[in-house]
């Protein structure tokens, strides 16, 4: 397993269009078109910032993890995502080291990635996503 870079910082928002305007109109950053990730019940937008990105997440259903996060904590930082070269090897390494994974196997993520989340109790209190980008 090798971590290649910080892929993105994810921010939970109530209104993705409004949040996107801040980054595009005020900060002058380029944002992707919204993408719906049905399996996670979210709408997502990626904002390019140098070699990394900021991901905006808006729930598309009241029972999504992002909706629950917003109800409990309000808008704000949701997770960090590290890009890895081999998602399955990363999951195995985390589990073999005694870390708790939310995802025991990789699943499809936004923008053509395969992803897995580690439990915050195993990563210093920060929800952590690992993503393998299809090459």
Topology:
Blueprint: E1 3-12, H1 16-26, E2 35-37, E3 42-49, E4 52-59, H2 65-73, E5 76-84, H3 87-96, E6 107-108, E7 113-118, E8 128-133
Order of helices and strands, N to C?
Answer: EHEEEHEHEEE
Radius of gyration (CA) equals: 15 Å
Number of strands: 8
Classified by CATH, the class is Alpha Beta
Describe this structure in words.
- This protein is of the alpha+beta class and about 140 residues long.
- The protein has one domain (about 5-135): 2,3-Dihydroxybiphenyl 1,2-Dioxygenase, domain 1 (Roll).
- The protein has helices spanning about 15-25, 65-75, 85-95; strands at about 5-10, 35, 40-50, 50-60, 75-85, 105-110, 115-120, 130-135.
- Strands 2-3-4-1-5-8-7-6 form an 8-stranded mixed beta sheet.
- The chain is globular.
- The mean pLDDT is about 95.
Compact overview of the structure:
The chain is of the alpha+beta class and 135 residues long. It has three helices and eight strands. 30% of the residues are buried.
Defining key terms:
globular, 2,3-Dihydroxybiphenyl 1,2-Dioxygenase, domain 1, 8-stranded mixed β-sheet, 135 residues, single chain, alpha+beta
């Amino acid at each position: 397993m090798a971590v290649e870079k910080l892929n993105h910082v994810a921010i939970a928002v109530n209104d993705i269009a409004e949040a996107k305007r801040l980054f595009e109109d005020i900060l002058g950053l380029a944002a992707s078109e919204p993408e719906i990730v049905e399996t996670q019940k979210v709408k997502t937008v990626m904002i390019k910032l140098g070699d990394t990105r900021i991901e905006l997440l808006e729930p598309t259903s009241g029972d999504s993890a992002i909706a629950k996060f917003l109800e409990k904590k309000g808008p704000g930082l949701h997770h960090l995502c590290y890009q890895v070269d081999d998602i399955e090897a990363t999951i195995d390494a985390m589990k073999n080291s005694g870390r708790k994974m939310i995802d025991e196997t990789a699943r499809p993520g936004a923008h053509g990635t395969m992803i897995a989340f580690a439990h915050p109790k195993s990563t210093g209190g920060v929800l952590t996503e690992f993503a393998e980008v299809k090459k």
